[in-house]
Amino acid sequence: MTKNVEEYNLISVRYKPNWSLKMAKNAEKDNLVGIRDSVRGCLVGIAVGDALGMPSEGMTRQDILKNFGRIIGFCDSQSRFSRGLAKGQWTDDTKLTIATVGGLIESVKSNAFGNLYVVGLAMFVNYIQALEEHQKRGFGKTTRESLTARMEGNNPFDGRFPTRPGNGCAMKSAILGIFSDLGALFNKDFGEYDEEELVIMVSMLTHNDSRSVVGAMLQAHIAGLFLFGWDLRNEDNFSWIYEQAKYYEDLVIKIPYVKDGTPKISEILAKIPPLLGATDELIADVLKTGGAVYESFPTALAYAIKYQDDFRSAVLAGANAGGDTDTIAAMTGALVGTRVGLSGIPDEWKRELEDYENIVSLADKLVDAVRDLPDGE
């Protein structure tokens, strides 16, 4: 990790989400049972989507049809990116999300939780451990290079590596939005940083393309909206997301080391509303399904909105989309899983999912850790 603590003093403009507006959308979520169900749904949703999309990662839709027919459940991997993984197992999307949650819990329990640098250090240590233990899980090149550079005491953004608009930040950031919203729900003191600064810091451990960071910020923010029951099929509510995207884009380019690029995510998001009544295949064709965050994130979001109350259809759309199927289905699963809760995820997938009980337990530990924080003013 860089020795320059100021790298994480990222933004001077502080944006405080309108919690009353979020919570007014669904007052029923203001209860512990519903909260636990949603947090469990987020983490299990990521893992289920990841495991469903894992076998077909990197394949075209035609290849998927040839090898699987249509994916309707867990399968053994036939992807070169996850060779050797069996049905129900997951990839780096879930492993890095688990590492993120572990870092949050560890930092919450430390006496210096209010210091953003402490949170970043906990994340970094967990990511390195995840990389060393699970290299066969399909870690992305940008994540591998950045973490290795930091291990060696170097800044990964010093120009030695190309800047890539990968989705490695967005795939693990839904839980960051949930975490921030838990603090608001329980009226806890999160110190001197907010959701946006947290997501930016975690993202910039590995990525410095503006679109990677913006995608992560949006995934986190939308997970929070789904926690409170927002209906993003509503035109006004989706307009909120579009405006947030533009706001984040203007904000992120002010951060040191961030490199800007095109197309902007906001430009792609504008294509989503007319597609919500289209076939899953047309959505994939228009928005694209590659590993670039400006392709995979909008596609995952479109499926999450189209099937916002139907977890099965949402994640299967991602798993069969072609391209970066594990990450698309994982991001979709995170969002819809948050909205419908663990109770809305099919039982057969819970039974067959790798490490299911531990993932549920981790969700509960996160909720309990936030509840144990000092109350805010």
UniProtKB/TrEMBL annotation:
A single GO molecular function term of this UniProt record: metal ion binding
Record carries keyword Hydrolase: yes
Keywords linked to the UniProt accession: Hydrolase, Magnesium, Metal-binding
Positions bound to Mg(2+): T91, D92, D93, D324, D326, T327
Cofactor: how and how many bound: Binds 2 magnesium ions per subunit.
Cross-referenced Pfam families: ADP_ribosyl_GH (PF03747)
The UniProt record lists the keyword Isomerase: no
Taxonomy, superkingdom: Bacteria
InterPro entries linked to this entry: ADP-ribosylglycohydrolase, Ribosyl_crysJ1, Ribosyl_crysJ1_sf
Names of required cofactors: Mg(2+)
SUPFAM superfamilies found in the cross-reference section: ADP-ribosylglycohydrolase
PANTHER family: ADP-RIBOSYLGLYCOHYDROLASE, ADP-RIBOSYLHYDROLASE ARH3
Family the entry assigns: Belongs to the ADP-ribosylglycohydrolase family.
Protein name: ADP-ribosylglycohydrolase
